[in-house]
Amino acid sequence: KLSAGFAAGYRTTMPSDQFALETFDLGYAYAPGRFAIRHLDIDLHRGEVLGLLGRNGAGKTTTVRLLTTLLPPTEGTAVVLGQDVRYGGRALRSRLGVVLQAESLDFVTVERNLTLYAFLWGVPREVAKTRAEEMIELFELGEARRRKPWALSGGERRRFQVARELMHDMEILFLDEPTVGLDAIARRRILRYLKERARHGLSIVFTTHILHEADMLCDRIAVFHLGQLLALDTAEELKRKHAGAREVSVTFTAPPAPEVRAELARELEARGAVLLERVEDLGAPETKVAFLAPHAEEVLPWLSHWAQSHSLELERMSVEEATLEAAFLGMIGDLDPASTDEAKDRDRSSGALPPGRIGGLT
């Protein structure tokens, strides 16, 4: 639930059309013929959380910088909050929030830093104070509130950086791996808070290497590899399409006859299943079969009907849950762009921003 501080000043001036942003064949070349990102066509709905996934050098951070006007596109363009990123400039940046991986630390205390940052964005003084208290509590900065950011631990500095950006009334929030260095409890609290903000109209673009974070937070996920968009869909659809075979275990209450066991093996294999353990009479009151099925959701109803038609009673059926990690690996295989010189060139070319441009967009 949002605090009174955010309810009092919260701004929902999103465009009236469907999308908060759209890209049109967007690309960025860091050298002639060498692209960090190319032919990118994605969109972001109002109040949606869009995840960007990919290994190092895949183009995620470059995409964030293009969408926030911190890099000029060399191909195509993007329309963010109704404005072309090539011409939006300061007027557009004032409506965005961004947390990048680099740090920008000021020389006043954490508490003062939060309120000053809000003032700079036009948040009324009393609202800013209320928000600062909420951010200090949410990000567990109570013991650090009187310290200066440079004196914080690594995890505290990251929490402070994210908290500071959440002080103002942005319309789209860009977060580039915001939970790096945070423990599991802090990550979960922040993700839940971001989801709540999205329900109140904030659109979020979120990059991460922690796949279960994307699964928990994101409405849709864009998967990048070597500067190209591989897929854009919900986590459930990505898992359904790309996670591959899942392990299915079935336990009968009594061992089936040998000819029935053989028939089951043939039927499963005909449906693309790979048996991990043949149906065997183990001399026990129940018998188990395990197999890998590419479409487990289709095999299970058939298997239940087959058992019934053979007067076999099923005691238990279980299916290994498909994971986003399995889907991700299914899409990109074992390739590692971070190990190539080209990927390292991409990282450097779209590289570090001047310190004054980190945190808020100016």
From TrEMBL:
Keywords: ATP-binding, Nucleotide-binding, Transport. It holds the Pfam family ABC_tran. Residues 21-251 form the ABC transporter domain. Residues 338-362 are annotated as: Disordered. GO terms for molecular function: ATP binding; ATP hydrolysis activity. This is ABC-type multidrug transport system, ATPase component.
